[in-house]
């Protein structure tokens, strides 16, 4: 369980932590490290297995490998692929909707131009 208080200061936000593998094409997060924003607006990283926190993400990684040696429960590879595919479909649908709106706007502009040029 991730910490709810750090040095007596309440955790106000618990977010996924982007991994160094994170990039423009694919969003990658640490599976066992959370980014915790505290009530004083400072930020620490928290272990998902216990209440360990540290301002440096590398320390949490070291903690995880030394204190929680058991492998994390990883979903089977097929469900991971299905989840990736679902995210890709959602992204494509979003892009499709954006392009459709632009195409409709362009058609409206073209009709307006045609009316002016050849009414
Ligand atoms: Zn831990």
What does the model show?
It contains 2 helices and 5 strands, in the order βββββαα. The protein has a 5-stranded antiparallel sheet with strand order 1-2-3-4-5, covered by helices on one side. The model has no long low-confidence stretch (mean pLDDT 90). By secondary structure, it is an alpha+beta fold. It folds into 2 domains: 5-67, no CATH class; 75-119. The longest helix has 41 residues, at 77-117. It binds zinc ion. The site of zinc ion (ZN) has 7 residues, from helix 1.
Task: Please supply descriptive tags for the structure shown above.
119 residues; alpha+beta; 2 helices; 5 strands; 44% helix; binds zinc ion
Strand order, sheet with most strands: 1-2-3-4-5
Bound ligands, each once: zinc ion
Low-confidence stretches: none
Question: Which range best describes the helical content: under 10%, 10-25%, 25-40%, 40-55%, 55-70% or over 70%?
Answer: 40-55%
Gyration radius (Cα, Å) is: 23 Å
How would you briefly describe this protein structure?
The chain has 119 residues and is an alpha+beta fold. It is built from 2 helices and 5 strands; from the N terminus they run E-E-E-E-E-H-H.
């Amino acid at each position: 369980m991730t910490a709810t208080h750090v040095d007596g200061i309440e955790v106000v936000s618990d977010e996924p932590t982007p991994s160094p593998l994170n990039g423009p094409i694919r969003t990658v997060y640490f599976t066992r490290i959370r980014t915790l924003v505290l009530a004083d607006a400072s930020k620490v990283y928290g272990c998902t297995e216990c209440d360990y926190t540290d301002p440096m993400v590398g320390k949490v990684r070291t903690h995880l490998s030394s204190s929680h040696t058991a492998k994390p429960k990883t979903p089977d590879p097929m469900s991971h692929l299905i989840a990736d595919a679902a995210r890709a479909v959602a992204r494509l649908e979003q892009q499709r909707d954006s392009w459709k709106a632009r195409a409709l706007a362009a058609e409206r502009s073209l009709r307006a131009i045609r009316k002016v040029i050849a009414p």
